[in-house]
Specification:
Protein-L-isoaspartate O-methyltransferase; EC 2.1.1.77; binds S-adenosyl-L-homocysteine; single chain; 9 strands; 242 residues; SAM-dependent_MTases_sf; 7-stranded mixed β-sheet; methyltransferase; alpha/beta; 38% helix; two-stranded antiparallel sheet; globular
């Protein structure tokens, strides 16, 4: 074998080792979340095993540590336990064929998880107001197990102010908001289907993760799940000023 071919073989082996390792570490992260009781269902474990978090964090960022990580533009990818909590809360509203909206989709991690759960007959829509994050999230998704859903159009990510929702594919069975709102934006309530559920952090300094269920008569029931700390749901200008 010539030296170049030898080198390529070696590089291939190293790559295989690292990618295999990443898959194991992602699985290890999921197992930890199961042991701590945050992941309670097989379906949520499965989707978090299938979508490798390592593909969604910037290079050099440890992907499997249970902590939020900086992704630029004064934004963060939420901690794995927050992603798991939101997936658990929304599980019943992420069944095959359903419509899901991810406001403040950032890295695209949760949008990809939603897409896997609602499947090719469903719709998973991400809305993010930093266009650079929209582009990088699409690149992340293209490397992930959700790539074919992006290609066939059942998963899409859009640039825009998520406080307005995304009327094109409304009403939604599930809405997730990944940034803290001062108050729940009315367009998001309007775009929730009767029987639908929204999970949204609400508050400024002290924030609550609220669960908003729309009843069949169109009224909403709201309860608080837990205290949280998210970046604000705000204008692009205010976010970039920090
Ligand atoms: N859930 C994502 C990102 C969480 S950070 C993840 O885990 O990767 C919150 C995201 O909300 C940031 O990417 C931020 O740019 C975005 N954001 C904040 N206000 C917004 C608004 N009004 N419209 C759309 N996106 C917004």
């Amino acid at each position: 074998m010539n030296p170049k071919a030898k080198l390529n073989l070696l590089l291939h082996k190293v790559q295989q080792y690292w990618s295999g390792n990443a898959v194991n570490q992602n699985k290890g992260m999921v197992e930890n979340l199961q042991r701590s009781g945050i992941i309670q269902s097989r379906k949520v474990a499965e989707v978090m095993e299938t979508i490798d978090r390592g593909l969604f964090v910037p290079n050099g960022t440890p992907p499997y540590v249970d902590s939020p990580m900086v992704i630029g533009y004064n934004a963060t990818i939420s901690a794995p336990h927050m992603h798991a909590t939101c997936l658990q809360l929304l599980e019943e509203n992420l069944q095959p064929g359903m419509h899901a909206l991810d406001v403040g989709s950032g890295t695209g991690y949760l949008t990809a998880c939603f897409a896997m759960m609602v499947g090719p007959q469903g719709r998973a829509v991400g809305v993010e107001h930093i266009p650079e994050l929209v582009s990088s999230s699409i690149e992340n998704i293209q490397k992930s197990a959700a790539a074919s859903l992006l290609k066939d159009g059942s998963l899409s990510v859009h640039s825009g102010d998520g406080r307005q929702g995304w009327p094109e594919f409304a009403p939604y069975d599930a809405i997730h908001v990944g940034a803290a709102a001062k108050e729940i934006p009315q367009p998001l309530i309007d775009q929730l289907k009767p029987g639908g559920r929204m999970v949204i952090p609400v508050g400024v300094l002290f924030q609550d993760l609220q669960v908003v269920d729309k009843n069949s008569d169109g009224s909403v029931s709201i309860r608080t799940e837990t205290s949280v700390r998210y970046v604000p749901l705000t204008s692009k200008e205010a976010q970039l000023q920090g």
